[in-house]
Amino acid sequence: MTEIIKDLYQFTEVMEPIKLSMHQYLLMTNEPVLIQTGAVSQAQTTIPKLQELLGERKIKYILISHFESDECGGLALVLKEHPEAVAVCSETTARQLMGFGITNNVLIKKPNEIFAGDDFEFQTISYPSEMHMWEGLLFFEKKRGIF
C-alpha cells in the first residue's frame, strides 16, 4: 500500500498473465471510505492491509463505480469483515448487486448528486461503462480534488 496524499492510500495488484494493474483506494477520513473492492483475489490481499491501517475502525462506505469483478467482485468478502459498510453506487449497479444477494446497506446515487460525510464531499458524475454501456458513476471528491 502507498500513501498517495495525506489520508489517501492506494492498494495495487498486478493481474497475470496480462500484467494489468488494478487499484483500490482507502480515504482515511472520520468515516473511512473504500473506493472499489477489486476482484476476490484483490480483496483477499487488500483486507489485511486495510485492517492494518484501520486498527479498530471500520469501513463506513464502499464506492463502486460500476458492476464488474475488478470494481466490486470482492464486495462480499469486504462486507464479511465490515458488515455495517454501505455500498454507494448507481441504480444499475444496485440492481446487479441484488442478484448476488447484496440488498442491505446499499445507497443509490444519481448523476450530479452530492454524497457528503463528516470530512468528505463527493460529486457523482455519470459515464457509460461496461460492455453493455450501463450507467456508471465516477466519484469526484471536491474538498481534496481527487478521483
UniProtKB/TrEMBL annotation:
Nucleotidyltransferase listed as a keyword: no
InterPro entries: ODP_dom, RibonucZ/Hydroxyglut_hydro
Keyword Hydrolase: yes
Keywords: Hydrolase
GO molecular function: hydrolase activity
Alphabetical list of SUPFAM superfamilies matching this protein: Metallo-hydrolase/oxidoreductase
Pfam family, one: ODP
All copies of domain ODP, residue ranges: 21-111
Protein name, as recorded: MBL fold metallo-hydrolase
Organism field: Salmonella enterica subsp. enterica serovar Java
